Amino acid sequence: MPEGPLLRFQDVNTYYGDLHVLKDVNYSIASGEIVSLLGGNASGKSTTMKTIMGVVRPRTGSVIFDGVPIEKMSTADRVKRGIAPVLEARRLFPRMTVFENLEMGAYTRKRGPEFAEDLERVYSLFPRVKERLNQVSGTLSGGEQQMVAIGRALMARPRLICMDEPSMGLSPRFVEQVFDIIQEINRQGTTIFMVEQNANMALSIAHRAYVLQTGKVVLSGSAAALRRDPAIREAYLGELQVIPGQVDTDSPPVSSRIRAPVAPP
Amino acid sequence: MALSDLLLQQTINGLSLGAMYALLALGFTLVYGILELINFSHFNVFMVGSFIGLWTLQLMGINGQAVVMTGLPLIGVMMTALVVTMVLSGGLGVLIERLSLRPLRDVKGPAPMITTIGVSYVLFNIVLLTVGADSKNYPNPLPPVQFAIGDAVLRLREILIWVIAVLLMLGLHLFVQRSRMGKAMRATAQDPEAARMMGVEVDRVIVIAFFLGSALAGAGGLIFGLYYNFTSFIIGFNAGLRAFTAAVLGGIGNVPGAMLGGVIIGLIEAMGAQFIASAWTDVIIFSILVLVLVFRPAGLLGRVAPNKS
Ligand SMILES: Nc1ncnc2c1ncn2[C@@H]1O[C@H](COP(=O)(O)OP(=O)(O)OP(=O)(O)O)[C@@H](O)[C@H]1O
Ligand SMILES: [Mg+2]
User: Rounded to an integer, what distance in angstroms lies between the CA atom of residue B41 and that of residue B123?
Assistant: First the structure.
């Protein structure tokens, strides 16, 4: 195992034309972690994911995966190195079957015994997927689509999965199930970087988290500390007011530095 | 001739034309499915393909209809002509994509489409200036075998055209449905960004789409020559426009739709010429197109709302 984090952002600045979206962003994600990325709408969460995948490129700064700068690499090369996405709103190929979607997940890999093993792994995590293999994926329910989207990422046998709002549009009970499975995947050895609006759930399974606000990292730390932070509680955990006296003193509040995001969930 | 024999005869003719239009329509649909680009240079890739077929047959010593072959030599000559025509036409399509469309990949608006019209005229004029404006007699080594069904006549060339077209379309269908690259093509057509994030190299998919579409157009050009016994620099326009109509009729971007549309246009053309007047063919074809688009804007097999986000 190489020294240092699995994924690192070094002073990354990403633009869409003139629109400056990520501003001197730094992340560091160690192998084996679940790291959550929180932030309001339009704060640059999905742009972070796209910058990792190489769908947009940073104008300055470096993205380092496993010790190697990847910011100039093609998306295909990044996938081959072991990064796989679970995209915002799932983005299955709607007119392809469930099985074909899983095959697309393994696109960069050779067909062989490993492919069969990975299929079995997906089936054991999501028995429901196995029942739907020949169904056209556009006709699946939202929850089923999310299972296929996660399964599709696993088919790449990735070291890092980048998830963009895996809980979006799912019923609370199902969200819990998905998060259990994310934890299980992580226990099996895959590092997870996860964008979430559902901060409560995200912080309950994440080891650490970053908070993004209009393209800047305004807060980061262990999930436990962030859960106690009054600003976070107010902005993301659905609590209107926190009495300062109730704050746990071993994690000093950082609330003075951040404002609530434009549109709290 | 009895009405039933007339109908049968025009069905035979229509299916032959339809096979040609379908091959040509597939090229429009493959490229549109991935780039949402109407590639007008396709008209004249078909025309150039017809000349490539002509020259290939001539190089094999076949001139006009004088040389008649049978059995294995005939199959060998036809296979060679088909393969050479398809490979070179496909190569021409790839060249067009590389030189004129890839530099415009990120340009929004109609510029790429207008460029394909320009490329079409370049091909048209190159052929006009090098081979001349007169029609060329097309080499055809097929023996004059024909079968009478009542008063209708089924010639060997029609059977050959159907066999070639069906095999090519079957091959394309299997490629798109089963092969790794075919699946990457479908994924790219449905969601290019997601396909890219699966590791698909989209530029390669585009090259393959141009190659296959242009190769099929070349096969269509060869079929044109074998069917009509002539070719000329001017054939791209009529056939191209009808094939494009076929693609839209079937649902542009939809592979089975292009095949269906091609056959329908071929049958309309044949029946219209028989029972109305060939001068009305275009009026009929385009009226039907308008009607279909009014009632089914996405075409016969097309999806109403393309699922893209
Ligand atoms: N392709 C694009 N072209 C131009 N601007 C873009 C593009 N994609 C995103 N943006 C802009 O960049 C900003 C950040 O967008 P991003 O999708 O990263 O936000 P987000 O944090 O994921 O928000 P959400 O929670 O709503 O998904 C927004 O202002 C958005 O309008
Ligand atoms: Mg987003």
Answer: 8
Strand order across the beta sheet in which A83-86 lies: A83-86, A160-164, A191-195, A34-39, A208-213, A216-222
* Pocket lined around ligand 1, Cβ cut-off 6 Å: A 16, 19, 21, 39, 41-47
Q: Which of A80, A91, A138 is closest, CB to CB, to B199?
A: A80
The mean pLDDT of chain B is 94
Q: Which two three-digit tokens encode residue A243? A: 């009495």
Non-local CB neighbours of B175 within 8 Å, separated by 6+ positions: B181, B182, B212
A217 in helix, strand or coil?
strand
Nearest residue to B210 via CA among B18, B21, B29: B29
- The reported pLDDT for the residue numbered B66 is 84
Nearest-angstrom CA–CA distance, A119 and A32: 22
- CATH code for A1-82+159-174+190-265? 3.40.50.300
Assembly ipTM: 0.89
- The pLDDT value recorded for residue A262 is 46
pTM for the whole structure:
0.90
Among residues A163, A130, A129, the alpha carbon closest in space to that of A148 is found at A129
Look up tokens 């780039």; give the residue.
B35
CA-CA-CA-CA torsion sign (B90, B92, B95, B99): negative
Distance from the Cα of A164 to chain B's closest Cα (Å) equals: 13
DSSP B139: P
Cβ contacts of residue A227 below 8 Å, gap of 6+?
Answer: A203, A233, A237
Dist CA A170 CA A86 (whole Å):
15
pLDDT at A2 over 70: no
Amino acid at B121: Y
